[in-house]
Amino acid sequence: MSSNNSHKKLMIMLLNKMNFKMSNLKEEFKKIINENKIIDDYNIRVQYIYDDSLEEGVIPELIITPTSENEIIKIIKYCNNNKIPIIPSSSSTKYYGGTIPKIKAIILDLSRIKKILSINKEDRYVIIELGVIYEELIPILREKGLRICVPLGYSKSASIISTYIDRVPLLTGPKILISEGWQCILNMRIILANGMIVETGTGS
After folding, report:
1. Domains and CATH numbers, the chain
2. Were 86 and a residue from 60, 79, 92, 98 both cysteine, which residue would form a disulfide, CB within 3.0 to 4.6 Å?
3. Section 166-173 average pLDDT
4. What is the pLDDT of residues 64-86, one digit of tens each?
């Protein structure tokens, strides 16, 4: 058997295993997160298979909408232990197809995690959660005489963190010519696939 055929056979076996687990997935997640944060409505799930790119995808099995770091950790650990594909999404505005499922998976919708934790006017930085969007932060900063580096051509409803990580060109930024969003990130608190929390530190 050729290596290509072996690869296809392995993929079919993995998908079959995932299909078996997906059949009662909602009941399993109800054990670790409130049921009102689990969405299985087809009309909502189908909205996650397209964005402003030309990518096409597979309808996700579930949409899970945690509201705390602890809930995210529980979900990620469960998915990691049970080999369930998971796709994080923090914004309704998307351009590159990066959060469109290509196989059966669940969407971890992080848009409800949106606290503005602190604003340091003297050192000119803010600490925000990943669901905060531009139209929420801009007016608050304006009241304090501050402004945020805004990506070129992006919607005001886009997630600040996701656009910065996508390295979107900015209208203004730390570089004299064209800056990218990642250059504005001083520190990130990241949850790894095993649930471990890592902080990158300002040196990154």
Report:
1. 3-109 (3.30.43.10), 116-199 (no CATH)
2. 79
3. 71
4. 999 999 999 999 999 999 889 88
